[in-house]
Amino acid sequence: MLTDVPLGVNQFLLTGKERALLIDTGYGRGCMPRKVKKLTSLPVTVVNTHLHPDHSGGNGAFDAVYVGEEDMPERGIPSNGLFRGVADAYRGNFLVRPLISALGKKFLLTPGGEEYLPMPEEFDLGGRKVRTVKWPGHTPGSVLFLDEGRKEIFAGDAINSAQWLFTCPEVTASEYAELWERLKGELSGFEKLRISHSRKPLPIGFIDGFVRALRNVNPENSKEVKIKGTPHPLMIYTENDEVYGKIGIWAYPSQMR
Ligand SMILES: [Zn+2]
Q1: How far is the CA of 167 from the centre of ligand 1 (A)?
Q2: Cα of 138 to ligand 1 centre, how many Å?
Q3: Ligand 1 centroid vs 236 CA: distance in angstroms?
Q4: Strand arrangement of the beta sheet that strand 152-156 belongs to
Q5: Rounded to the nearest whole angstrom, what is the distance from the C-alpha of residue 17 to the centroid of ligand 1?
Q6: How far does residue 220's CA lie from ligand 1's centre (Å)?
Q7: N or C, fewer C-beta in 10 Å, the chain?
Q8: Structure pTM?
Q9: Whether the predicted pLDDT of 37 surpasses 90
Q10: pLDDT in tens, 206-248
Q11: How confident is the model at residue 98 (pLDDT cuts 50, 70, 90)?
């Protein structure tokens, strides 16, 4: 696990006997290839859990990157429209303007010369196979990486104690709950969920608490937060799960069902 500072976003390097798999490239300080070379001399395949700037910003330092088909850059970068909307809403405010333009350097994703390839169903690293599963919810093209040998799931931003769904407005909370419930049968042997925004993995049982929260969401029990420049207000639902503590779901009103 490699972690970007100061915002603490994780990337993961999985090594087999013949190849290594780099899951996400971080904010893109350009030093990622060097960091990876320090850890392995194997040829490296690069993948993104989803196309967001804190996961894909460093893609340009590599020749080719596999992404979920629905997140292919030619379909539009999932978060750029959202960021531009907010940036435009604050453009008239001279106090905030410098901050917005500084943030734009980090939060607007602009692909360079790297080639984007559709995610295959499996990567064979030599003695270590990693299966991929399409997981629309955080972005349309989000992908889970299942390392059956190590009993770990690399989930990116697909599950968290503060879950953003509004970056994929076409999925509702209950549809997302169904997706997780469907996977549960396949997950009996897995132990950990490795996520991008916490160095501590989540226990596999967290899925139960997460699904409970997704099922409890409705517009009446959520708080509305208006953010200038977003197409709709954000609804924030928070519950105190008896086992896993605070779990929050952030979504547009149309997704709170
Ligand atoms: Zn994300």
Answers
A1: 8
A2: 7
A3: 17
A4: 122-124, 129-134, 143-147, 152-156, 192-195, 202-203
A5: 30
A6: 26
A7: N
A8: 0.94
A9: yes
A10: 999 999 999 999 999 999 999 888 889 999 999 999 999 999 9
A11: confident
Sequence length of the chain is 257
Work out the end-to-end distance of the chain between its first and last CA atoms, rounded to an integer number of angstroms.
Answer: 35
- Return d(Cα 128, Cα 136) in angstroms, integer: 25
Is residue 135's pLDDT more than 90?
yes
> How remote is the CA of residue 228 from the centroid of ligand 1, in Å?
20
Amino acid at 188: S
d(CA 39, ligand 1 centre) in Å: 25
* CA dist., res. 78 & res. 80, Å (int): 6
**CA of residue 99 to ligand 1 center, whole Å:** 21
What Rg do the C-alpha atoms of the chain give, in angstroms? Answer: 18
Q: Separation of 49 CA from ligand 1 center, angstroms?
A: 9
Closest CA to 143 of 158, 124, 128, 162: 158
Measured between alpha carbons, how far is 66 from 145 in angstroms, rounded to an integer? Answer: 12
Tens of pLDDT along 50-63? 999 999 999 999 99
